[in-house]
Design a protein that fits this description.
The complex is a heterotrimer. Chain A is mostly helical. Helices cover about 65% and strands about 0% of the residues of chain A. Chain A contains eleven helices and no strands. Chain B contains 13 helices and twelve strands. In chain B, the strands form two sheets. An eight-stranded mixed sheet of chain B has the order 6-7-8-3-9-10-12-11, sandwiched between helices. Chain B has a four-stranded antiparallel sheet with strand order 2-1-4-5, with helices on one face. In chain B, α3 packs across α4. Chain B is globular, with a radius of gyration of 22 Å. By secondary structure, chain C is mainly alpha-helical. Chain C starts with a helix and ends in a 6-residue tail after the last helix. Classes of the chains: A mainly alpha, B alpha/beta, C mainly alpha. Chains in contact: A-B, A-C, B-C. The interface between B and C is medium-sized, with 31 and 25 residues.
Chain lengths: ~325, ~350, ~350
């Protein structure tokens, strides 16, 4: 299965390959930030005092001590950007994994079983899917905050999971439904294969191909949504973890006064990470989606063969042999 | 066949295109002639290169394909023509009828718009009424009433759509038309109608037709001559009735044997599978599957020879039978081949 | 012409489907909002009232009735366009919609127009010149404009523009708002109706920044959509058939590929309304725009369940109605759909 998952990565060519590589590089940078934050970031994400006990400046401009400046809560922006990578990636990874774990089997089951179960599920999923995802996320975050008492990270992750389940469900279900009608599945049934075998062996492989593409594009969207939740105030408290969207909401009031560093850096982080993930998804899509695949044009040279080839006809064109 | 009668003269045509594993030799040294008003059938298994050949004659090659040889159309070498000149010929002098009629018509355009586009491309400044007049004339011959002129493609049945395609291909009276599996997507009754229409083309329009198909029955019914293609080469070419009653190439024989009729009692098939065109078997491409292959078939490629009745054959066995060549005992000895494993057949 | 006659029939079919669709969405909204522990009143007013006052408030709001009764009441209310009242300031939601809906409407329409004007031509260009420099540049633009959060691009615009004195927040100056009489409750339309040119220009000026910000975000989506559809339609069989009839390449692209590529795009573009609504919420907070999105955020912060429920219900209905309209437009354009 790993080979199937990795196959699209290896088959890319041309521009698609560059897109993929660029995306991977950018994303890798943030992954490094996330993993090594405690060692890379100059300060803690909720740190207001430096080593000698002095307070950080409030909204200080970028300087030697604070490369990206400080914000209105006395936090160092560079540190919050780096720590933020950890928050974003953790939440998103969690939510996408959960969504896959729930959505893919549901889709397989629904597509394979058909009937009223399928129809009911499809109806509900379509309704959820049609609804603006941000609004849905807001509603979920709103609810979960009350239940979990404002435990930001978990609540955020779960709200994201909820809105992405329909996506995986739909794609997996439609692939399953069309694969189900394939003759090789019919043949398997004819020789008495159990439903579990059919789903596992035949359909799963087909379906698993599209998961990486959706997964990465999903992750990109999730980061955007998480930042949006943070911006709106439903995200993670600044003392709990660093979150880029929240930091941008704090930058609102001072934008008109010309304070740019509180806006520029967190936002730039969001743009880069989302772009990186999107590029990975798009690069993969160019290869996985057969409709978009461009056959590599190879120049061909017409050569004459060896002794096994016939001589040029025309020399005996008019040779008529009578019996 | 006099010189002025010949519409198409193809000589040693090759169409190769590039792939990861090397050049795909889809058409590898094909020669034939086509006279005015003549219908030539082109048969072979899937993947033998006949579709590529059909498209190549109109210059419709996929990107990355290379073509060489000589292709004379009414005396002019098409391979040396400029792109603009080919564009001008396509539709007005060279026509094509495709296999799946539904997808070949733009679903957003009315039939009338299809006609207007085609005619106006070649005769700029022509009035809509004049286009309509010509279109209706051709449609009438196809049995499509004028009331349907402004309809959309999806409003027609499969058979009617194919007739629309034929009408579109013929509205400008081209002298040569390639029909690429025109009836494969249609049911049998409709197929009969379409074939009759194609057959009558020469009477109405004096068109020469290359009819590509894998259905031997159609060929027997409608074609004057037939060309049998295998792995990019024409292995047998001649008068349809003669070729079918006295096939000289083993592949032709096997093809005929595998046709099913009411009298069929046991199913015949040709063991093995069509060869990979990037790496076909050396010498005679058919030797792994030929039931009477000889040693020479695997070492030297047979030459195209013409026998009585103007039949072309590319086969050592046929040559031997006609006494056209002298072969040593070693060369004549039956070829020993490994058992074709079940996997190969799949 | 037989094809024309079935459009009304198709429209009727689609309109009939609206009802079950809305019903499902309402059920989902209701279920979601009742999933929370406790009840809306405790959540928003919990700490401020005594236990008896709380129970009393719950009773008045009908929250101690069985869930199924509440559900049916909810559906019945919505059917009569009664979205309930807010808890915190006891306003009928319908009033909130009336007062603030217009601002959201003019914002989204403006943004959409900008997105279409920018996105569609760029997408067609990129698809046509696949893998060339222009294609890559356009695609990068498409990706980045979608990746950049609207509140970030908006803020950057504000930072850049503020020194020039161009308006960067709210929908109009205080003066305009005072002078113009609310007739349609859509401010920009009202200025026209009032014949007040200064006011109209003022409102238009205020629209520029938010609409451009949101519009650019949307255009990123449109670019990718249009490009992909164009690439697919270029592979269409009818394209090859047209080439076989000698139609020159530029006409083939324009008449066959472009047009056919845009048809599915129209459907998807219409469905981006969902995306636009989400973006509108963020844009409104960024620019302090007096629209429904801003109201939603305000009520969320106040933990006003009733208001959130009412507003979300309203959004759900809007989404469904728009999707039906899109289907109808699609039927008008694509003759195959009517069958």
């Amino acid at each position: 299965m790993l080979k199937l998952l990795l196959a699209p990565f290896r088959n890319t060519t041309g521009i698609a390959r560059w897109i993929l590589i660029t995306g991977l590089v950018i994303t890798a940078m943030f992954v490094i930030f996330a993993i090594f934050a405690p060692w890379i970031a100059p300060y803690g994400f909720a740190q207001k005092i430096d080593a000698s006990g002095d307070r950080f400046p409030k909204m200080g401009e970028p300087s030697a001590a604070h490369w990206f400046g400080t914000n209105d809560q006395f936090y160092d922006i560079l540190s919050r950007v780096i720590w933020g990578a950890r928050t974003e990636l953790t939440v998103v990874l969690l939510s996408v994994l959960l969504a896959v774990v729930i959505g893919v089997p549901l889709g397989l089951l629904s597509g394979f079983l058909g009937g009223w179960v399928d129809r009911a599920l499809v109806f509900v999923m379509d309704a959820l899917y049609a609804f603006p995802s941000l609004l849905l996320a807001i509603v979920f975050a709103f609810l979960l905050q009350a239940r979990l008492g404002g435990a930001g990270i978990l609540a955020a992750a779960l709200s994201l999971t909820a809105i992405y389940i329909p996506q995986y469900f739909r794609v997996v279900r439609s692939t399953t439904v069309s694969a189900r009608e394939e003759t090789y599945v019919e043949a398997a049934r004819a020789i008495g294969a159990k439903p579990r075998t059919i789903m596992g062996k035949y359909l799963f492989g087909n379906v698993i191909q599209s998961v990486p593409v959706i997964g990465t594009l999903n992750a990109a969207d999730a980061i955007s949504t998480l930042a949006a939740l943070g911006f709106v105030g439903l995200g993670i408290q600044p003392t709990e973890a660093a979150e880029w969207g929240y930091d941008l909401s704090r930058a609102l009031d001072d934008a008109a006064a010309g304070i740019w560093w509180t806006t520029l850096f967190p936002g730039l982080a969001i743009v880069l990470l989302v772009t990186g993930l999107t590029l990975i998804g798009e690069g993969l899509n160019e290869t996985v989606n057969p409709a978009l695949r461009k056959r590599r044009i190879r120049k061909v040279v017409l050569t004459r063969g060896s002794v096994t080839e016939p001589e040029r006809p025309g020399t005996d064109q008019n040779e008529v042999v009578t019996p | 066949m006099t010189r002025s009668d010949v519409v198409i003269e193809a000589d040693d045509l090759r169409v190769w295109y590039g792939s990861e594993r090397g050049p795909v030799k889809a058409v590898d040294g094909v020669s034939f002639n086509l006279a005015k008003g003549e219908i030539l059938g082109l048969v072979g298994e899937s993947g033998c290169g006949k579709s590529t050949l059909g498209r190549a004659l109109l210059g419709l090659l996929p990107p990355g394909a290379a073509m060489d040889g000589t292709l004379l159309f009414e005396g002019e070498d098409l391979l040396k023509s400029s792109r603009k000149a080919m564009l001008a010929r396509r539709g007005s002098e060279l026509g094509m009828i495709f296999q799946e009629p539904l997808t070949r018509l733009n679903p957003l355009m009315r039939i009338s718009q299809h006609f207007e586009e085609t005619v106006r491309t070649h005769e700029k400044g022509i009035s809509k009424d004049e286009v309509r007049r010509r279109a209706l004339e051709v449609l009438r011959l196809m049995g499509i009433p004028p009331t349907r002129y402004r309809a959309y493609p999806h409003e027609f049945s499969g058979g009617m759509r194919q007739r629309l395609m034929i009408a579109l291909a013929l509205v400008l009276r081209p002298s040569f038309v390639v029909a690429d599996e025109p009836t494969t997507a249609l049911d049998v009754l409709v197929e009969a109608q379409i074939i009759r229409i194609l057959h009558d083309l020469r009477r109405e329009f004096d068109t020469s037709l290359l009819l590509i198909t894998h259905n031997l029955g159609i060929v027997a019914e409608a074609c004057d001559r037939v060309a049998v293609m295998y792995a990019g080469k024409i292995v047998e070419l001649g008068d349809a009735k003669t070729v079918f009653s006295k096939p000289q190439h083993p592949y032709t024989r096997e093809l005929l044997r595998s046709t099913i009729s009411l009298r069929t009692e046991g199913l015949n098939y040709i063991p093995g599978a069509p060869p990979d065109l990037t790496d076909p078997p050396p010498a005679c491409h058919f030797h792994p599957r030929g039931p009477d292959a000889m040693n020479i078939c695997a070492t030297k490629a047979p030459r195209d020879r013409v026998y009585e009745n103007g039949i072309h054959v590319q086969c050592w066995a046929a040559d031997l039978a006609h006494g056209a060549v002298d072969l040593t005992d070693e060369e004549k000895a039956p070829l020993i081949r490994e058992e074709i494993s079940v996997a190969d057949e799949a | 012409m037989s094809s024309q006659g079935s459009v009304p029939r198709y429209v009727a079919q689609r309109l009939l489907l609206v009802i079950p669709m809305i019903w499902v969405l309402l059920t989902v909204v209701f279920v979601l909002l009742r999933v929370a522990p406790g009840d809306p009143i405790s959540a928003s007013l919990g700490g401020k009232l005594s236990a008896e006052a709380l129970a009393d408030a719950k009773h008045r709001a009908g929250l101690d009735r069985p869930l199924i009764v509440q559900y049916f009441d909810y559906i019945k209310d919505v059917a009569t366009l009664n979205f309930g009242n807010t808890f915190t300031d006891n306003r009928p939601i319908i009033d909130v919609v009336r007062d603030n809906g217009g601002a959201t409407l003019s914002l989204t329409v403006g943004a959409f127009l900008i997105a279409l004007l920018v996105g569609i031509p760029l997408g067609l260009l990129a698809g046509r010149r696949r893998d060339t420099v222009s294609d890559v540049v356009i695609r990068i633009f498409g990706v980045v404009s979608y990746a950049a959060p609207i509140f970030w691009t908006g803020l950057l615009m504000v930072i850049l523009v503020a020194p020039t004195g161009w308006p960067t927040y709210d929908i109009a100056s205080a003066e305009t708002k005072f002078l113009v009489e609310p007739r349609t409750h859509i401010l920009i339309v009202d200025t026209v109706l009032a014949g007040n040119t200064d006011a109209f220009l003022d409102v238009l000026q205020h629209h520029v920044l938010p609409c451009v910000a949101l519009g650019l975000l949307l255009s990123g989506v449109f670019i990718r959509l249009v490009r992909v559809n164009l690439l697919q339609s270029l592979k269409g069989d009818y394209v090859e058939a047209a080439r076989a009839r000698g139609v020159p390449e530029k006409y083939v692209i324009r008449r066959h590929a472009f047009r056919n590529a845009l048809v599915p795009v129209i459907t998807v573009v219409g469905l981006q309304v969902a995306l636009t609504l989400g973006g509108a919420v963020l844009t409104e907070k960024t620019f302090n725009w007096p629209g429904l999105g801003n109201q939603l955020v305000k009520y969320i912060v106040a933990h006003d369940y009733s208001a959130v429920q009412g507003l979300v219900t309203f959004f759900a209905i809007v989404v469904v109605v728009v999707s039906v309209l899109v289907d109808i437009v699609n039927a008008l354009i694509d003759p195959r759909v009517r069958y």
